[in-house]
Amino acid sequence: MFEGRPDRDDEIVLVGRSNVGKSTIMRELTGHSVPTGQKPGVTREPNHFDWSGQSFMFTDLPGFGFMSGVEGEHREAIQTDIVHYIENNAESILAAVLVVDGKSVIDIIDRHSDRGEIPHDVEMYHFLEELGVPTVVAVNKMDKVDDKDERLNDLCDRLGLFPPWQQWDEEVIAPITAKAGRIDSLRTALQGHIRDAKRDELLQFVTA
Ligand SMILES: Nc1nc2c(ncn2[C@@H]2O[C@H](COP(=O)(O)OP(=O)(O)OP(=O)(O)O)[C@@H](O)[C@H]2O)c(=O)[nH]1
Q1: Is 90 exceeded by the pLDDT of residue 78?
Q2: 81: closest CA among 43, 26, 35, 130?
Q3: Please, which residues have CB within 8 angstroms of residue 21's CB and are 6 or more apart in sequence?
Q4: Ligand 1 centroid, distance to 37 Cα (angstroms)
Q5: 42 CA distance to ligand 1 centroid (A)?
Q6: Where does the record place the EngB-type G domain (predicted)?
Q7: Which residue ranges form the domains of the chain, and what is each CATH number?
Q8: Are 111 and 90 in contact (CB under 8 A)?
Q9: Residue of minimum CA distance from atom 10 in ligand 1
Q10: ipTM field
Q11: Per residue in 103-124, pLDDT tens?
Q12: How far is the CA of 25 from the centre of ligand 1 (A)?
């Protein structure tokens, strides 16, 4: 099990396959320097970061899926820990960011579907939906994608969202290039979810 969660009322979690750019996004969002690198699986334990001036924290969860040098069994255990972490802290999670690699996400999803498996990204998206955690899908590495609209429509299709993707823009689907600091759509989506969550909290307070 993961240990040492700081005592914060609210948090935003980042999940995604290894090497999709979660650490890079975290650095862009919070300004904190985190280990990033070519080697998949750099993040094995949750990393918690404060967002300057905010009362909540960001939690970068370990990458799931393939990790070089990590045995299948250990990989499974990390995945179980991720699911438990989200379940146990669902009450305090304001929003989740599911990060995917825009360049490879459709190929990876389809490869697993073709084998009769449920792709991790799709499973995670539905898991978060079932828990009622507002989720933004950050489609990273868009600098490597030529056919942006087609790719994003395909992704909507695989996640069970009706295309065109533009109707989910800045709420569910956020195309970004974290490496170049282009994450505005993610910021906008998160701000919207934080506002909604805070509004619900205040509503509960006045109706209690
Ligand atoms: N082309 C491109 N590369 C990117 C982008 N964002 C991140 N990368 C690169 O992708 C690689 C992985 O980035 P990380 O931020 O370490 O990924 P991670 O998801 O934290 O990886 P794990 O720690 O393995 O889970 C690095 O080489 C980054 O420079 C992007 O927007 N475009």
Answers
A1: no
A2: 43
A3: 99, 101, 140, 141, 178, 179
A4: 7
A5: 10
A6: 8-196
A7: 11-207 (3.40.50.300)
A8: no
A9: 21
A10: 0.96
A11: 999 999 999 999 999 999 999 9
A12: 8
Query: Residues 121-149: what's their mean pLDDT?
Result: 97
Nearest atom within ligand 1 for CA of residue 41: 24
Of the given ranges (28-42, 110-124, 172-186), which has the lowest mean pLDDT?
Answer: 28-42
Which residues are within 8 A (CB) of 154 and not within 5 positions of it... i.e. 6 or more apart?
Answer: 106
| Most confident stretch, 14-23, 55-64, 195-204 | 14-23
Partnered with residue 98 across adjacent β-strands are: 15, 137
Q: Which atom of ligand 1 is nearest to the CA of 38?
A: 27
User: What distance in angstroms lies between residue 82's CA and the mean position of ligand 1's atoms?
Assistant: 20
List ligand 1's pocket residues with C-beta within 6 A.
18-24, 36-38, 40-43, 63, 140-141, 143-144, 177-179
Tell how far the Cα of 22 is from the centroid of ligand 1, in angstroms.
7
Residue nearest to atom 21 of ligand 1 (CA): 19
